[in-house]
Amino acid sequence: KKGSYEHFMQKEIHEQPESLTTTMRGRLIRGGSCNAKGVLLGGLKDHLKTIRRSRRVIFIGCGTSYNAALAARPFLEELSGVPVSMELASDLLDRQGPIYREDTAVFVSQSGETADTLLALEYALKNGALCVGITNTVGSAIARNTHCGVHINAGCEIGVASTKAYTSQIVVMAMLAIAVGDDAISSQSRREAVIDGLFDLPNKVREVLKLDDEMKDLAKLLMDEQSLLVFGRGYNYATALEGALKVKEVALMHSEGILAGEMKHGPLALVDETLPIVVIATHDNCFSKQQSVIQQLHARKGRLIVMCSKGEASLVCPSGSCRVIEVPQVEDCLQPVINIIPLQLLAYHLTVLRGYDVDQPRNLAKSVTTQ
Ligand code: UD1
Ligand code: M6R
């Protein structure tokens, strides 16, 4: 079943051009002489009005599924104008946080069986919210018990570390944002640009996967480190959290995803010439802020690995003293799909080099069905 690959995680990372193609199949409308470009999500079409009119959208999930929702949040806020809040399922349950009839609660789960997410679903149903599922598993508890939803159709994911489900979840939530925002003429050109970006995304993913050897070399350099920080912001705050989660989960190396805007509020104290730091600085509306973060880390002799858009190495590292990972540039809201892939590859190679179990990390289960 692994074909020519040694591990399921490796196979699942490399099959992302295909899994993303299946996720989008039949759901993107190309547009033409009589109809505009658009998105068709069969499971949501009768509920879009309710979602548009809701007072708030709440994304609820755990682990990687939460991170995927965090990556999609800015685009949904932009296109819907509805406030979007984020909840880790366990924290929502601990607090018994307020949920109302006027809310849309979106449950994101690869397996559709995660105990905390399911309990949060029961709680939101009891409070009268519209409950939407985004899951990879047809017939799962979350798919069955939500009012409506979207299957991400990424194909079976076997590695405990979620990889292809993450990128498909982001793409489904970007399509959801387009569908919800479909009634606004003012954002039509933006929606169409993102739809074009979605059509081209599998090709861009194929391109970024060519960094495999480069990531293996980087892993060789980092394999004996104790810790790795990942700085991101905006669309790529989620990339920082998810990259760090992959590294700690499979490579068993301490890793922390940090919101770059918080740097001066504590994390900067950690910076010295030994601690490796990945900074995500691909081109978007936060670019100049990330350039100044890089300068400040550099001034403290930080050991930087900067991820930037192709051709922009000299803009992020004028001194030439940091290591640079150049990735293809796509629409800003889709960039998290591209940017996570080098970090998935890095986590994979670190795990192999450190001699740990890739597909079955110690102490973890693929589906967390107990609290
Ligand atoms: C559906 C079919 C697909 C077919 C397509 C043709 C299924 C599972 N999908 O896909 O095989 O090719 O029509 O038009 O038969 N749902 C939830 N909660 C969730 C996920 C989904 O309630 O978490 C519901 C949806 O609201 C929908 C149904 O499950 O009623 C199927 O969802 P989805 O597979 O995403 O719908 P389509 O893409 O239309
Ligand atoms: O099946 P789910 O998406 O609900 O699972 C949620 C988390 O348990 C899961 O994403 C976990 O964080 C992964 N092992 C991360 O790779």
Give the topology.
Layout: H1 8-14, H2 16-24, E1 28-29, E2 38-39, H3 48-53, E3 56-61, H4 63-80, E4 84-88, H5 89-95, E5 103-109, H6 115-126, E6 130-135, H7 141-145, E7 148-151, H8 164-180, H9 188-208, H10 212-222, E8 227-232, H11 237-251, E9 254-259, E10 276-281, H12 287-299, E11 303-309, H13 313-316, E12 323-327, H14 335-354
Parallel strand pairs: 3-4, 3-5, 5-6, 6-7, 8-9, 8-10, 10-11, 11-12
Antiparallel strand pairs: 1-2
Helix pairs in contact: 2-8, 2-9, 4-8, 4-11, 5-6, 8-14, 9-14, 10-14, 11-14
The chain binds uridine-diphosphate-N-acetylglucosamine (UD1) and 5-amino-5-deoxy-1-O-phosphono-D-mannitol.
Please tally the β strands and state the result: 12
Write down the secondary-structure element order.
HHEEHEHEHEHEHEHHHEHEEHEHEH
Oligomeric description of these chains? single chain
Strand line-up across the major sheet: 4-3-5-6-7
Percent range of helical residues: 40-55%
Largest sheet: 5 strands, parallel
The backbone outline, from C-alpha atoms, is globular
Small ligands present: uridine-diphosphate-N-acetylglucosamine, 5-amino-5-deoxy-1-O-phosphono-D-mannitol
Rg, Cα atoms, Å: 20 Å
- Label the structural class: alpha/beta
Beta-strand level of the residues, as a percent range? 15-25%
Distance between the termini: 31 Å
Number of helices, counting only DSSP H or I runs of 4 residues or more: 14
**Average pLDDT over all residues:** 96
Low-confidence blocks of residues: none
EC number: 2.6.1.16
GO biological process, one term: fructose 6-phosphate metabolic process
Catalytic activity: D-fructose 6-phosphate + L-glutamine = D-glucosamine 6-phosphate + L-glutamate
GO molecular function, one term: carbohydrate derivative binding
